[in-house]
Amino acid sequence: MSIAIRVIPCLDVHDGRVVKGVNFRNLRDAGDPVDLATAYGAEGADELVFLDISASSEGRATTDDTVRRTAETVFIPLCVGGGVRGVADVDRLLRTGADKVGINTGAIARPQAIDEIVDRFGNQVLVLSLDVRREAGQPSGFGVTTHGGRTSAGLDAIEWVKQACDRGAGEVLLNSMDADGTTDGFDLEIIEAVKQVVDVPVIASGGAGAVQHFVDAARAGADAVLAASVFHYGRLRIAEVKQALARAGFPVR
């Protein structure tokens, strides 16, 4: 039996509030993270992703209190990312209530952090968070970015994701910075390219604006589909997305 496609709302948190912009710019307030998380749990979300979007660029750890309050309120898996650099950060977040931890900039700066985290906690805990942008100078045509997409890491996205998964990353959160916040649809080309080189689950992120976009991402190979603004502002409901996936022949929970 096929594994169900997961539908995952993303809470991009800045200064303790959920925000959303386009390509992480022109941010506007979308509400309290605990209130939104509670609503999504009731609506049937399969998981939640909580990203402290300014933690890496500001050189600080994720806001523990907000994570703790969210974890105490919602009883579905919670993945937390932002400012994670190594074992100590992962340990802290798991104790705070996270089920999985996303790492992006910290792994690029020191790839062996992946090995250390997996050795300590197992690969099911570690999610490689990947902010990808089309970059003509890279072999695959896709480059890795850091600091909310503002900085090129000088890495080919396909080479990096393969290396990270070979080191033990158990899942990939694949965010297209070109599509992020546009509501024009997921970048299907990068989803297909990543699925060709890794055998771990891939969460498609960036660009959802209509239920058909989620179906398209699943057809491209995504194991889970993630969105933020369309859920936060009531443009789409989680149940609508699951119904569309089911009608297209994909199992859902």
Architecture blueprint of SSEs:
Layout: E1 6-14, E2 17-22, E3 25-31, H1 33-43, E4 48-52, H2 64-73, E5 78-81, H3 87-96, E6 100-103, H4 105-109, H5 112-121, E7 126-134, E8 142-146, E9 151-156, H6 157-167, E10 171-176, H7 188-195, E11 202-205, H8 211-219, E12 224-227, H9 229-232, H10 238-247
Parallel strand pairs: 1-4, 1-12, 4-5, 5-6, 6-7, 7-10, 10-11, 11-12
Antiparallel strand pairs: 1-2, 2-3, 7-8, 8-9
Helix pairs in contact: 1-2, 8-10
General description of the model:
The chain has 253 residues and is of the alpha/beta class. It has a single domain, classed as Aldolase class I (TIM Barrel). Helices cover 35% and strands 27% of the residues. It has an 8-stranded parallel barrel with strand order 1-4-5-6-7-10-11-12, surrounded by 7 helices. Helix 1 runs parallel beside helix 2. The two termini are 13 Å apart. The mean pLDDT is 91.
